[in-house]
């Protein structure tokens, strides 16, 4: 829990990744976006794939949840359509994290990079209006904030906000926006970047192509590193930050494949009603990483993309069914270990109690 606020009375729930050893390590701080709804119900972000890439290169990584989000204390303050104020307000918690980090013996307080995705990207660029000790560069990944309130020209307000940040910019930045970003498409990204640099800001825009169904969630995908790392590596070298891999990280253990059935054998999936089988048919068209879980009472859930789809599928399936669930499929293979059930093995009472389960935790639910 990282202290923040004018009197240090706010506590920011923060995930820390670091290599073995005493350090001091260069530091990456990654800042999250905002999902629709109550910020307190937003899950803790970890950005495991980006964190892993940096820990391999000797960095410590901190991922703070800003005030009012998840299990951080304090109250989330919404400035509505005033995007400039929204960015500055969120940047205060990033500054508090930097202040805390620079006091830790295991942090190299002169080698810090700050990154942010979506709302975290907006806040990261706002942070760059001050020359902050130790911070050498900023990485803005799909930065912005959407507000569909009545009368809010949020696109125009974002352009105005980035013009203000550019006029006061003190820290160089790298920006990345994808062609099929569902929130901040290429035209808006170009407008924001143009406003920023015309006002005097230092930023290089990387406009990459389509990424899966929505490039807004690229940073949360295990396949995203091949998109963001090459330009990030160049940027880090330009600002004097390390890029060579110096640590090995063991991959997370995989759920073992079984020979129970072919992954596309829909009739082989146990417990499901016809509605459940239709859901599994839909699941077969989802992106990897993915996982499908089932319950003896017929409930099901699939999870797609992001971190730990296996755990997410199991947790939501159990919530929907009221009992434990088991994984049936992961990615492109079956992991089911129980004996194959003959057709028609569910009795009428069981069928009457089945549920169509929960829709998957889809990548389309990426935060703003």
UniProtKB/TrEMBL annotation:
Protein name per UniProt: Prolyl oligopeptidase family serine peptidase
PANTHER family for the chain: ACETYL XYLAN ESTERASE DOMAIN-CONTAINING PROTEIN, DIENELACTONE HYDROLASE DOMAIN-CONTAINING PROTEIN-RELATED
Residues annotated as domain Xaa-Pro dipeptidyl-peptidase-like: 10-143
Region (Disordered): 344-368
Lineage of source species: Bacteria, Pseudomonadati, Pseudomonadota, Betaproteobacteria, Burkholderiales
Domain of life of the organism encoding this protein: Bacteria
Entry's transmembrane regions: none
